[in-house]
Design goal:
Order of helices and strands: EHEEHEEEHEEEHHE
Structural class: alpha+beta
Number of strands: 10
CATH class of the largest domain: Alpha Beta
Largest sheet: 10 strands, mixed
Distance between the termini: 18 Å
CATH superfamily of the largest domain: Pseudouridine synthase I, catalytic domain, C-terminal subdomain
Amino acid sequence: MRVLLRIAFDGTRYAGWQVQPDRETVQSRICAVLAKIYDVQSVDVTGSSRTDSGVHALGFAAHFDMPDGRFPIVDIPYRLNSLLPDDIRIVSASPVPADFHARYSAKGKIYRYIIANPHPTRAGRALILDKLPDLDILLSVGRLFIGSHDFSGFAVKASLPDNRECTISRLEWQRTLDSSIVMEIEGDRFLHHMVRFIVGAHLEVAEGRLREDEIVESLETGQRLRIKNPTGEGLYLVHVFY
């Protein structure tokens, strides 16, 4: 039986989700624990996407095929969490059809990006800036990204797919009670580093190094812009839709 896992993790000490030689990753940890509880040599776990080093998740999704039915699906989160480190939690487990795929069945995702002033509780969990950008400017820039556009200029060039069009249905900025600034963005798909480059574009406009009309032109033509790629520490995968 195929099982969908919803996973939360603090990515601070991991080299992303995907298994990498001689590096600690979230996927390698979960695979190892699944193999242990099922007493098999290995269990393959397929994630909804790759995440980069330091990126966090509140609702990452992955699937695996149960080697046997020795315990019910409802018990899987407890059994995995009892052996996983505290910075990885299985939020839920549910049965899915045999043709379900955590990556290719996805209909959309929500990401969050946090910008904060220096503070001990934000280290490794936000983009730290001494001076926060003007919220009104961020709100104005955010409206430019709504809709279907060619996001070639907001992704890693070396890993661009043939289809570069993505549809952004929601992009919101708000100031939180602890004075952090948070962006939440929802779309049908995201290219490699796309969310971080979008954040970078907002910051470039706020700092006077980029104009809004340049962003509009890039979204229409796919032209690349000179945008800094902010750290992955402020990025969170919030939810994957199926």
